[in-house]
Specification:
alpha+beta, ten-stranded mixed β-sheet
Length: about 675
C-alpha cells in the first residue's frame, strides 16, 4: 500500500466531540476536517458503528478519514449509543433507536459551520447495514451511501440464518458483541463518570443470543431493518461492495437488481475487509474509488462515475484448495446492467451413476440414499471469512466422502460462471425436519476438490421462511437450493462436482436428529450461470494501487495468533473444531493505551449423537493505562436436544485483580422447525 503524506487540503483532527440526541443522551464522535472547512464548508462522510472509535478500530480509521479530509470532506466516526465513549446502553443491533439517532446525527452535521449539509454514509458490516437502513428513512441530508459487506435481508442473508438453517456464526457473532458490550468507555474522554457508564452497560445490554434464538423464522423482528421489504424506500445513490470470501456478496446482486436509483456493485476476491486492505489480494485503490463516488454525488462533479459499468467483479481463476490465500489470480470483468441477458443458464442433469450430464443427454432415474455423518463440515471454513486465513474451506474430498456427489466429464473447453448456481432436487425425507447442504466444486486433474460456492436449505422452509411446514416422511418433494453468487473460471480438463449432504456442522446447526433423504437422480437438475468472455473486459478502466493516510503508531506488546484446529479423539469418538482468534496486546502510543483482545471457540460433537452438538465461546478484553486496568471475560455455551436449545452464559468484569461485576444466564428455548 502506498502511504500518502501530502493531500490537496491540510487536515486537522478533533479527538472527541459530543453530539446531543433529542432525549438528552450524548454520542461520542471523532472528526477529521480540512483545515479551512469553517471558511469553506464541505460535505461530510459518516461512519456510525459500535466498534469503539477511540481504540478498537482507531488504526483503520486513521488511514481512511484523514484521506477523505485531505480530499475535501469532513470525516466523522460516531460510536453508537451505549458503545465506545457514547452514553446510554446498546441493547441489540439495528434497533429503531439506533436509526433515529443516526437521523439526528445527520441533522447535527447539517447545522455545523464546517459542513455544507451534504452527507454520505459509509461502513463495512454494521455501518453498511445502518447506512442502507437510514437511507430508507430518506433524511434530506443523506445524499449517497457506500455499503460494504452488508445485507438487505436480515433473516435470509446475514450472520444468523442461511436457507432457514441456523448458522454457527450466529453464536460466534453474538459472543463478539457480548464481549464488546462489556467494555467501559475511556476515562480520558468521559471523565470520572466512566465507572457508572460501564456498570449501566454491564447491567443493561443483556445476552443478545437469547433474543435472536427466540426468532427462528422470518418474523417482524427480522423484517425490521431489511430494506428488501420495500426497496423503493432507498432513493439515494448506493455503491455496494463485497468479496467472494465474505459472507455478504449476494446482497450486491439483489441491490443492483432491485434499487431504482444510481447504483454500483464491486466484488473482489476479498474477505470481510475494505478493498484497499483486501485479503486475499489483489487489493485495489478503494479510497480513490470512494472519493470518486463522493465527488459525484456529494459535490456534483462530472467525473464519469454515472457512466461506469453497474457491476464489476473479480473472475477467479482455478487454484488448489487451501485454508489461506495471499492472492487469488484472476481478472476484472464487468456488466453494464444486472441482471443481464448476457448470462446463459446452462442446465445439467444429476444423473444415475453419480454423473453430472449436460441437459441434452438422456439418462434414466435412480434413487440414492443420503445420510451424512454429523460432522460433515469440519473443513467447510467460516460462513464469513474475517481474516481470510485460515478460515477458508479446505480440500473437499474428506467432506465428499459423506456426501452424494455428481461429477461431470473433464471439460473440453474452459467454462466461466457469474451469478448464483441453482440446484433443484427431487427428494424423499424420512423425518419431519431435515436440511441439505449443496456444494459446487472445481475438481482438478489430480482430483483435489476446491469448493467454489455452496448453499443451504432447511427443508421445512422449502416454500418460505415465514411459515415453515413439517415434512411428511416418505413424501416426494421438489426443492430448490440457490448457491451463493460467484465468478469462477474452470479450465479445460477440470471437472465440475455437485455434492449434496444432510449435515454441514459447524457452519450450520444440524437438524434435530439424523435424517435419511432419498435423492432421485435423473430428474434432479443443476443450473449454472455461464458467462462468455468478452473483449470489452480487456478495456476496463484499471483500478489504482491501494493508498491510504499514514498508519497509526502502535507497538505489539504480546503477539497475535490465529488458527483453526480439527481435533479427533478416537478413544472418546469426540471431534472438535477449535478456533483461536488472539489479537495479542497492542500499545496505542498517541492515547497511551494497552489494548488486549482474545477469543476462543470450540465446536464439538460425539459420534453420530445429534444431542451432543455443542458450541462454546470464550472472550477476554482488556484496557490498561498507568494504574487504570480493566478486563472483562465472557463465556457462552449453546447445546441442543431434538426439542430445545440450551443457552448458558457468564460475564465477569475486573478492575485490576478484583472482580467488580458478575452475571449468569441459563435458559431453554424451544426449537422452531430448526
Amino acid at each position: 500500500m502506498r502511504i500518502v503524506n501530502e493531500f490537496p487540503h491540510k487536515v486537522k483532527t478533533i479527538e472527541n466531540v459530543w453530539i446531543p440526541m433529542p432525549d438528552g443522551i450524548h454520542l461520542a464522535a471523532r472528526l477529521w476536517l480540512p483545515d479551512d472547512a469553517e471558511q469553506e464548508p464541505v460535505p461530510a462522510v459518516l461512519e456510525y458503528i459500535p466498534y469503539r472509535k477511540r481504540d478498537s478500530v482507531r488504526a483503520r480509521d486513521e488511514q481512511i478519514y484523514p484521506y477523505f479530509a485531505g480530499h475535501g470532506y469532513a470525516g466523522i466516526r460516531v460510536d453508537l449509543r451505549g458503545s465506545g465513549d457514547s452514553e446510554g446502553v446498546l441493547r441489540d443491533e439495528y434497533l429503531q433507536q439506533e436509526l433515529d439517532d443516526g437521523v439526528a446525527i445527520l441533522q447535527w452535521l447539517e447545522d455545523q459551520p464546517w459542513c455544507n449539509g451534504n452527507v454520505g454514509m459509509m461502513g463495512i458490516s454494521w455501518g453498511g447495514f445502518n447506512g442502507l437502513q437510514i437511507a430508507a428513512m430518506r433524511p434530506p441530508q443523506l445524499k449517497a451511501v457506500i455499503t460494504a459487506s452488508s445485507t438487505d435481508d436480515r433473516y435470509a442473508d446475514d450472520v444468523h440464518h442461511m436457507g432457514g438453517c441456523l448458522l454457527g456464526d450466529n453464536l460466534s457473532w453474538a459472543s463478539t458483541m457480548f464481549a464488546y458490550n462489556s467494555c467501559p468507555p475511556d476515562p480520558e474522554v468521559v471523565g470520572d463518570n466512566w465507572r457508572d457508564m460501564w456498570f449501566e452497560r454491564l447491567r443493561g445490554s443483556g445476552l443478545w443470543l437469547e433474543q435472536w434464538l427466540q426468532h427462528q423464522r422470518r418474523d417482524d423482528y427480522w423484517k425490521h431493518g431489511s430494506i428488501c421489504e420495500d426497496y423503493a424506500d432507498v432513493q439515494c445513490p448506493v455503491m455496494a461492495v463485497s468479496g467472494w470470501a465474505d459472507g455478504y456478496s449476494n446482497a450486491v446482486f439483489r441491490l443492483l437488481e432491485n434499487l431504482s436509483g444510481p447504483r454500483s456493485g464491486l466484488i473482489g476476491p476479498w474477505s470481510h475487509k475494505y478493498p484497499h486492505i483486501g485479503q486475499p489480494g489483489p487489493a485495489i485503490g478503494f479510497l480513490q474509488e470512494a472519493v470518486r463516488w463522493w465527488d459525484k454525488w456529494l459535490k456534483g462533479l462530472d467525473n464519469g462515475v454515472d457512466k461506469d459499468p453497474m457491476l464489476r467483479v473479480w473472475m477467479q481463476d482455478s487454484v488448489p484448495p487451501t485454508t489461506r490465500y495471499q492472492m487469488r489470480p484472476g481478472r476484472w470483468v464487468a456488466e453494464n446492467d444486472w441482471p443481464t441477458a448476457e448470462i446463459e443458464q446452462r442446465e445439467f442433469i444429476l444423473a444415475p451413476a453419480r454423473q453430472l450430464l449436460p441437459a441434452d443427454e438422456t439418462s434414466g432415474e435412480e434413487t440414492r440414499n443420503l445420510q451424512s455423518p454429523l460432522g460433515l463440515g469440519l473443513f467447510a471454513g467460516k460462513w464469513c471469512s474475517y481474516a481470510a486465513a485460515p478460515d477458508l474451506p479446505h480440500d473437499q474430498r474428506q467432506e465428499d466422502g459423506g456426501a452424494l456427489v455428481f461429477d461431470s466429464e473433464p471439460l473440453a473447453e474452459p467454462l466461466e460462471i457469474l451469478g448464483a448456481p441453482v440446484v433443484e432436487l427431487e427428494v424423499i425425507p424420512d423425518k419431519p425436519v431435515a436440511m441439505l447442504a449443496v456444494r459446487l466444486s472445481d475438481i482438478a486433474p489430480d482430483n483435489k476438490a476446491a469448493r467454489v460456492t455452496y448453499g443451504l436449505l432447511n427443508l421445512t422452509h422449502r416454500d418460505d421462511s415465514e411459515h415453515p411446514q413439517s415434512l411428511q416422511p416418505g413424501k416426494q418433494y421438489r426443492v430448490r437450493v440457490q448457491l451463493n453468487n460467484i465468478a469462477q473460471h474452470f479450465p479445460a480438463g477440470h471437472r465440475l462436482r455437485i455434492a449434496v449432504s444432510t449435515s454441514y456442522w459447524p457452519l450450520a446447526w444440524p437438524a434435530p436428529e439424523s435424517t435419511q433423504v432419498k435423492v432421485i437422480a435423473g430428474i434432479s437438475r443443476a443450473f449454472l450461470p455461464v458467462r462468455t468472455p468478452r473483449d470489452s473486459d480487456n478495456n476496463l478502466r484499471p483500478f489504482d494501487e491501494p493508498e491510504a493516510a499514514p498508519p497509526l503508531d502502535t507497538e505489539m506488546i504480546e503477539p497475535e495468533h490465529h488458527n483453526w484446529r480439527v481435533i479427533r479423539d478416537l478413544d472418546l469418538d469426540l471431534s472438535t473444531l477449535k478456533v483461536i482468534n488472539d489479537s495479542g496486546i497492542v500499545y496505542i502510543r498517541d492515547i497511551d493505551l494497552e489494548m488486549g483482545r482474545k477469543a476462543l471457540e470450540w465446536y464439538t460433537y460425539q459420534g453420530d449423537d445429534f444431542n451432543s452438538v455443542r458450541g462454546e465461546t470464550l472472550w477476554e478484553r482488556s484496557y490498561k493505562r498507568g494504574d487504570w486496568f480493566v478486563k472483562t471475560i465472557t463465556r457462552t455455551v449453546l447445546t441442543s436436544t431434538a426439542s430445545d436449545f440450551y443457552l448458558r452464559a457468564e460475564l465477569d468484569a475486573y478492575e485490576g485483580d478484583k472482580r467488580v461485576y458478575s452475571a449468569n444466564w441459563d435458559t431453554v428455548i424451544p426449537r422452531d422447525f430448526v
